[in-house]
Amino acid sequence: MNIIKPPLLKEGNTIGILATSGAMDDDTNLKRAVSFFENKGYKIVLSDNVYSKAGYLAGSDEERVNALHKMFSDKNINAIIALRGGYGAIRLINKIDYNLIRQNPKIFCGYSDITALNAMFLKRAGLMTYSGPMILSDFGQENLCDYTINKFFETVKEGKFDYEGTFWGGNLSTLVSLCGQDFVPDFKFTLFLEDLNEPPYKIDKMVTQLFNMEKIRKNTKAIAVGDFLDCGDVDYIFEELNLPLIKNFPASHADKKATVPYGYCE
């Protein structure tokens, strides 16, 4: 697969804030995040549906996919950061124009529910994205995590990452929700995983479901175990796979998280 690596972020670039998943209940963190980036010299554009609500979603599927298409097609926008996760991205994956994504490569960053878009952008458009911080949960927090902020800019501005190799994966429960789709890369990778609020038997079930897929078994050369917050002891689940393990990998729903290049082959 010919992987497209988007241009790095430059001073003064325009960053789009895109709502593809859950609705926003309060815009305090959004306003803080906008101020954070503007104070660093970046321009900010909000997707049309940032304030939209359709039940628990940030607008209808049509609103959200149109907002996504508009941000990717806008030549003035250099990077896109997800507003939040929650749920909703998987509803869009068969409605997205992946040719448009391929023809307009740009930085795209998010985690949790956004893992569905990370995976499908890579698979269907060949675009390397970033699994990393989002607007409400990270950049809009009153007390920013220095590690998260520093690693974000190191990665998207300087192309630095603390680990070698090709990483693919993300939020475990979101990856499992893609089963039934053609979503697994055709090249070998280190599978990084994280989750929260799931009991060990569910983590076991989801990992087993992934590794029941031949392509996962064939292409996973190592596992990077991120944070499994409030999940109990799950280390044994990964140890039983008899693959090289990277423990304490900084993928997480906690404040401290890395920005992981998603699916790039050097």
- Report the total helices: 10
Helicity, as a percent range: 25-40%
Main pleated-sheet profile: 6 strands, mixed
Secondary-structure element order, as H and E?
EHEHEHEHEHHEHEHHEHEE
Cα-based radius of gyration, to the nearest Å: 17 Å
Average residue-wise pLDDT? 97
Quaternary organization: single chain
- Class from helix and strand fractions: alpha/beta
Q: What's the shape?
A: globular
Quick overview of this protein structure:
By secondary structure, the protein is an alpha/beta fold.
Care to describe what's here?
With about 270 residues, the protein is of the alpha/beta class. About 35% of the residues lie in helices and about 20% in strands. It has helices at about 30-40, 60-75, 100-105, 115-125, 135-140, 145-160, 170-175, 200-210, 215-220, 235-240, and strands at about 15-20, 45, 80, 105-110, 130, 165-170, 190-195, 220-230, 245, 260. The strands form 2 sheets. Strands 2-1-3-4-5-10 form a 6-stranded mixed β-sheet, sandwiched between helices. Strands 6-7-8-9 form a 4-stranded parallel β-sheet. The protein is globular, with a radius of gyration of 17 Å. The chain starts with 13 loop residues before the first strand and ends with a strand. The model has no long low-confidence stretch (mean pLDDT about 95).
